[in-house]
Amino acid sequence: MPLRPQPSPLAYVPFVSVDNMMRLVNSLGVEAFLTELATYIEADFRRWPEFDKTPRVASHSRDGVIELMPTADAENYGFKYVNGHPKNMRAGYQTVTAFGVLSSVANGYPILLSEMTVLTALRTAATSGLVGRYLAPEGARVMAMIGNGAQCEFQALAFRALCGIDRLRLYDIDPAATEKAARNLAAQGFQITRCGSAQEVVEGAQVITTCTADKQCATVLTDNMVGSGIHINAIGGDCPGKTELHRDILLRSDIFVEYPPQTRVEGEIQQLAPDHPVQELWQVMRAEAPGRRDGRQITLFDSVGFAIEDFSALRFVHDRIQDTEFFEPLDLLADPDDPRDLYGMLIRAGRPSEAAPKP
């Protein structure tokens, strides 16, 4: 049997499949993974000025959105492809799927290709928990979760690992989603309270997480539901025309954001004037601006997700898979013997080569 020419080592890029990502996470433990990932995110937020930054490039349709999220520092370039299609679940598809690439700035070669459906859920939760360290009330243990879908368990585990939350109040318009979340989280040792309404779920909570999927201007939280001293982790509003909070809540809150040019278009603050004051989280993490100042303050993390968080996640995975079996080499890059002779490489690949030696 003729042998085909074999790719050179430069042709291969480490690829982390969904299966390998799950194996990597389970080898560390979910909460340990979230905690380590949060340290990478925090480190990159603290060097925020070093990054190229741009709002994500979004293609909106009547069914959802497809986005590219790029950023780079002096050494690496990263991007994520991600979609958001709220109707997908009815047809058996995920609402959000993603993959990402990390590349060397020096030569442009990818150094990692990874699934990011699982990884995005983890990085979103790790970011929320990290921000909670700066903004949640001291000693908070009770979190209300409105929206008990695919992100719910990750958020709960991140807030326990990073902030000490161990009591959860759950509500979803779909009782089956609440039962799913309650079953999964009770097995992880949380104290669970199932609630029948959004008004009920926030009772006694010190942190409120809103994470709903419908692409519309909704009022998941009304002004009368939010008392003093609360931290709101608003992660569901993430595109134009999609919000979860009543405008009056925003006017009573100190608002913290990732990247204002993106959040003002996609976040809860799209409801406010373009010059409404907000605080950038990187400045809080660098101790250049205050986070929570007192016990009566309402803090709001208007989370839409930003490319630097994905960059941090890819950087973390790239470091973590070294000398492991949690990736496979993918023949992704053409690498001709003569860099100028790509055509010659193509033609030679179609010719039979020497027969394989007999054993």
The helix/strand class is alpha/beta
CATH topology of the largest domain, by name, is Rossmann fold
**Total DSSP E strands:** 17
Radius of gyration equals 23 Å
Tell me the strand order in the biggest sheet.
9-8-7-10-12-16-14-15
Report the order of strands and helices: EHHEEEEEHEHEHEHEEEEHEHEHEHEH
| CATH architecture tag of the largest domain | 3-Layer(aba) Sandwich
The chain-level mean pLDDT equals 93
Give the termini distance in whole angstroms.
13 Å
Low-pLDDT segments, ≥5 res: 354-359
Assign an overall shape: globular
How many domains make up the coordinates?
Answer: 2
User: In percent terms, what proportion of residues is strand?
Assistant: 15-25%
CATH class of the largest domain: Alpha Beta
Report the CATH superfamily of the largest domain: NAD(P)-binding Rossmann-like Domain
* Major pleated sheet: 8 strands, parallel
**Helix content, binned percent:** 25-40%
Protein name: Ornithine cyclodeaminase
Pfam family, one: OCD_Mu_crystall
What does it look like?
The structure is a single chain. The protein has 359 residues and is of the alpha/beta class. It folds into two domains: 9-118 and 310-349, ornithine cyclodeaminase, domain 1 (2-Layer Sandwich); 136-305, 3-Layer(aba) Sandwich (Rossmann fold). 32% of the residues lie in helices and 23% in strands. It contains eleven helices and 17 strands. It has an eight-stranded parallel β-sheet with strand order 9-8-7-10-12-16-14-15. Strands 2-3-4-5-6-1-17 form a seven-stranded mixed β-sheet. It has a two-stranded parallel ribbon with strand order 11-13. Helix 2 packs across helix 3 (117-135), helix 2 packs across helix 10 (307-320) and helix 3 (117-135) crosses helix 10. The two termini are 13 Å apart. Residues 354-359 have low confidence and may be disordered.
